[in-house]
Amino acid sequence: MTQYTICVYGENAVGLLNKITIIFTRRRINIDSLTVSETVRKGVSRFTIVIKHDKREEVEKLVRQIRKVVEVMAVFGYLNHDIVYNEIALFKIPTPVNSKPIDIDTINKVYKAWVVYWELDYVVIEKTGTEEEIFEFFRYLKPYGITEFVRSGRVAVGKTPQGLVEYLPEEMEWEYAI
Amino acid sequence: MKTSEETETLEAVETAKFLSGGQALMESFLQEGVDLIFGYPGGAIMPIYDALYDYTDRINHVLVRHEQGAGHAAEGFARVSGKVGVCMATSGPGATNLVTPIADAIIDCTPLVAITGQVFSGLLGTDAFQETDVIGVTMPICKWNYQVVDPDEIPEVMAKAFFIARSGKPGPVLIDITKDAQVKAMTKPFSYKKIDKLLSYSPRVTPKPEQLEKAAELINKAKRPYILFGHGILISQAMEEFREFVEKTDIPCASTLLGISGISVDHPNYMGWLGMHGMYAPNVMTDRCDVVIAIGMRFDDRVTGDAAKFVKQAKIVHIEIDPAEINKIKHADAPVVGDAKEALKMLMPLVKQGDFTAWKNEFRKLEAPEKELVSDRDLQGEGQIKMAEVVKMVSEKTKGQACIVVDVGQHQMVTARYYDFRKPHSYIASGGLGTMGFAIPAALGAKFGAPDREVVAFIGDGCFQMTIQELGTIAQSGLPVKLVILNNNFLGMVRQWQDLFFEKRYSFVELHNPDFITIAKGFGLEADKVTSRENLSEALDQMLASDKGYVLEVVVEKEENVFPMVPAGTSVSEIRLK
Fold it and tell me: Helix H segments across B433-503?
């Protein structure tokens, strides 16, 4: 199974998320992660969807089907090496009296993670990185007892202007401008 | 000082200027040239129907008996006329009854605008009376859908709706309008602007020259080229261009089921239609050609059988308006994205004059076994009446000029085989979805779409009972729609499969039918029944001569199988003649 990141640009309209995700449902493709945010252009949203699939041509078909949704302006499918990507994770670690003290120095210098909030009996640590880096950090923190762990979906930007899909010509010509 | 009377007139002008949502919808219809709506009123769409009351001089509304009928009638109208079909229903059950025709329209690329009423916007999401999330329900089967909660949106939304429905690959659009948006007045004067593109959607009509050049190169080099054309020829009204293209290149052509009537059956290059129950030569020759030119068709599984084995020896030129269809089932060596009419026009000067007499003869040679094993037997005129005889007779009596509407099943395939289509837009069928119950309402819609043409529907006894209530709509319309029931007292196609693939274990396929004649007469239609061959011709003459809605029941052989047949999922080469 190969990981693909699909970036969809669409009008910021009610229901568009639904219209996009049902295309995955119909083909029985599970979504690993999904993030939505507005782009630099007002009114245009960017959906970043991560899936795993073993057939590239099926992903290409999926991308073309997403493009058919009327409110969708452009779709790009990427392999991991085509993109710069990251996730963010938050860890809530209990710090009761007499517990093993957490090693802030290692957390900062080795894992490039930061304490972003603390109370008397817990801290919240933020870690940005790839899925692997976050899980490596997860393993490091596990002995301290993680009470809550949350990971965002992937955010990604392409290294090249094009994605893996060989777009049919009209899509290549599409200019992203409002 | 203004008199009180003047103030009143002034206010009246003001009110007239700021239309209610319902009125704005009617004005939008007029702007789009809509003069016919199939629909059914109900609670949540009453303000729209109230607005319609003042527009009945310009907009004809056909009151159906069930919302599914409205949808299929709008489809029939659209398929024959090329215009956008419009249907209306209320919220909840009214809207959900439209689901089947909407699903039918998306898969058969039929331009349809469906208007549904919705509960007050303040009640959305509260499980209000007759509230269904119709936007959610129809999302996967609509080309576009949208919920209007503000009357000011109506002109723009309707312009979008009609543009999306008819452009590119046509399809259904559903607009759900909350009751308050129908009642409330707009806050600005009504102004309507038709649109021809959207930022996120503007389908390519004119193909790219380099794609055409590559396609022409493949076509010109081909030794055994073969054209497979589909519904796209009819949708883009490319019949003339297609005929000219075929005549210049002399390439043999075959149609898909929905492509039927794209070219006259008499054309020397037309070899018939292909697919699961298609003709023998067009199917078998897919294994012998070296270049396939697919125009406005999408390699449906009922055409390809086992897609991996279909035309695997050949290079494929795929002319198609929807980019998502390219490489979906078959890899296209030369894709041409664009409208079939434009593509054929531009391809004409690039292709060579051809002479494929010998190659065409190979097709013709294969007609002999089919004639002997299938057609002659179907038409031999012995024993019980066969469906084929009825269709052939109607074909002869109407000289192949009628608009034929069919339902789904054996009679659908038999009609495609034995009617000699000589006029375009003449085979109106539910192809992709295979919707039983399509024909009665679609035939009425077709008659509205082509009032000057003879409209004859062939309908199985099972299908007939799925939308039988629309006989009332036909009677009320007063239109001479001719319905022929080919009654074998069986769900014939399912029975055929049980016969061939399930060891004749006939599981729930036999129907104990009602007296169709009494029913038809009860609805106010003329009706007649034929059980023996000697009465058939006269009964058909009588039906065709009638200027009223007419039901003719023909009792046909009970256990007749339709051949040729490519068993589902097998290669086309495994086609069976018996």
Answer: 439-449, 461-464, 471-477, 492-501
Q: How far is CA B244 from the centre of its chain?
A: 25
CA-based nearest distance B298→chain A, Å: 14
Tell me yes or no: is domain B384-556 CATH 3.40.50.970.
yes
Contact B458, B486 (CB under 8 A): yes
B337 and A CB contact within 8 Å: yes
**pTM for this one?**
0.93
Identify the three-state secondary structure at position B463.
helix
Tell me the one-letter amino acid at A55: K
Whether chain A has a CB inside 8 Å of the CB on B509: the answer is no
Nearest residue of B to residue A58, measured between CA atoms? B328
Cβ neighbours of A19 in B, within 8 Å = 139
Q: What is the mean pLDDT of each run of 10 residues along chain B (578 residues)?
A: 42 60 97 98 98 98 98 98 98 98 98 98 96 97 97 97 97 98 96 90 93 97 98 98 98 98 98 96 96 97 95 97 94 96 98 96 95 94 95 98 98 98 98 98 98 98 98 98 98 96 96 98 98 97 98 96 93 90
Class of domain B209-365: alpha beta
Every domain of chain B and the residues it spans: 17-183, 209-365, 384-556
Contacts of B208 in chain A (CB under 8 A): 169
Domains of chain A: 2-83+157-173 (3.30.70.260), 84-151 (3.30.70.1150)
* Distance, CA of B231 to chain centre: 9
Of A61, A73, A170, the CB nearest to B199: A73
Task: State the Cα angle at A162 between A157 and A168, rounded to 5°.
Answer: 140
**B323–A168: do the CB atoms touch at under 8 Å?**
yes
* ipTM here: 0.87
* B17-183: CATH topology: Rossmann fold (3.40.50)
Residue of A9, A70, A167, A172 for testing the chain B interface, max B β-carbons within 10 Å: A70
A68 vs B: CB within 8 A: yes
Contact A61 B208 (CB under 8 A): no
